[in-house]
Design goal:
Elements (H helix, E strand, L loop, with lengths): L5 E9 L5 E10 L4 E5 L6 H6 L9 E6 L2 E2 L5 H7 E4 L12 H11 L4 H14 L15 H13 L5 E5 L7 H13 L3 E5 L3 H7 L2 E6 L2 E7 H5 L2 H6 L6 H15 L1
Parallel strand pairs: 3-8, 3-9, 6-7, 7-8
Antiparallel strand pairs: 1-2, 1-4, 4-5, 9-10
Helix pairs in contact: 3-4, 3-5, 4-5
Length: 254
C-alpha cells in the first residue's frame, strides 16, 4: 500500500531565526510500521513530525507521503492521509463542544451527516470519551482533552497516524488506554515521545535524533536496551528496564 509510505530524502529545515532543526534527514517508513522517534529536548522531533503533514515545508530535500511529494499543491491531499496529534491538545480543540471538535474534520471532507455522526461516535467511544460529547473542551481535564484530540484525528480515518508526546499529562489509567488504542491501530503509526516505556510497548522500530540528525535507526528493542547509545543522545533506559536491571543486580548481590 504505497499511500501508507513516509519517506524523507536528505531533508533540511531552518527556522526564520536561523536555527537548523533538521540536517540531512533520510529514512523510509513502510505500510504498517510502528516507529518511535526519540531524542533529547531540541533534537528536532516535533519539527520532523510537522513535515509529515505539511505544517512545515523543508528548506531543502524531499518529503514523500505515498505517491505525493510534499509541496503547497499536494499539502491538502497529504493531510487527508496523515493524521497529526499535536503535543498540546489546546492547539487542536477550538469548537464549542467535544462533538463539534471531533466532527470538524470529517465535515470538511464533505461527508454526509450520518457518516460524520457514525465516525464521531466511534472515535469518541474508542478513546473512552463518548459521555463527554456535549461538554465544552476547555472544561475537560488535560487527559480528557488529549483523548478528545486523538479522537478528532481518528475520526478522519487517516492511513498514517502521527503523534507528538501523546502520553504527556496522562494519568496511569489514561496512559494504559492510550497504549491499548495504539496497539489496535493497524496502519502506519509514528510516535515522538520522551516516554520510552510507551515507545517500547507500541513500536517495533526506533529512530534516534540528535541535533537534527539521525544517529540510530533500528529495532526498538535493541535501541531501547542500549544504555550507552541512549546516554550519548541525552536519554535514559526506559523505567521498566532500569527497574529490571536493579532487580537483577539485587539478586546477584544476594
Amino acid at each position: 500500500m504505497s499511500h501508507h509510505i513516509v519517506e524523507f530524502k536528505d531533508v533540511c529545515f531552518s527556522y526564520p531565526d536561523g536555527t537548523e532543526a533538521l540536517r540531512g534527514v533520510s529514512f523510509r517508513i513502510t505500510h504498517g510500521e510502528a516507529v518511535g522517534i526519540i531524542g533529547a529536548n531540541g533534537a528536532g522531533k516535533s519539527t520532523l513530525l510537522f513535515h509529515m503533514n505539511g505544517c512545515l515545508m523543508p528548506s531543502s530535500g524531499t518529503v514523500l507521503i505515498g505517491e505525493f511529494e510534499l509541496n503547497k499543491k499536494t499539502r491538502a491531499d497529504i493531510r487527508k492521509r496523515v493524521g497529526l496529534v499535536f503535543q498540546n491538545p489546546d492547539d487542536q480543540l477550538f469548537m464549542p463542544t467535544v462533538y463539534e471538535d471531533v466532527a470538524f474534520g470529517p465535515l470538511n471532507l464533505g461527508l454526509s451527516e450520518d457518516v460524520v455522526r457514525a465516525r464521531v461516535e466511534e472515535a469518541l467511544a474508542t478513546v473512552g470519551c463518548y459521555r463527554l460529547k456535549d461538554r465544552p473542551p476547555h472544561h475537560l481535564s488535560m487527559g480528557q482533552r488529549r483523548a478528545v484530540s486523538i479522537a478528532a484525528v481518528i475520526a478522519m480515518q487517516p492511513d498514517i497516524l502521527v503523534m507528538d508526546e501523546p502520553s504527556a499529562d496522562l494519568d496511569p489509567r489514561s496512559r494504559r488506554q492510550l497504549i491499548s488504542l495504539l496497539k489496535g491501530f493497524t496502519h502506519t503509526k509514528i510516535i515522538a515521545s520522551h516516554d520510552l516505556d510507551l515507545i517500547m510497548d507500541t513500536c517495533t522500530r526506533c529512530i534516534v535524533l540528535s541535533d537534527g540528525r539521525i544517529t540510530a535507526d533500528g529495532s526498538a528493542e535493541e535501541i531501547l536496551m542500549d544504555e550507552g547509545l541512549l546516554v550519548e543522545n541525552g536519554l535514559e533506559l526506559p523505567l521498566s528496564l532500569k527497574y529490571r536491571c536493579m532487580q537483577q543486580e539485587g539478586a546477584f548481590h544476594d
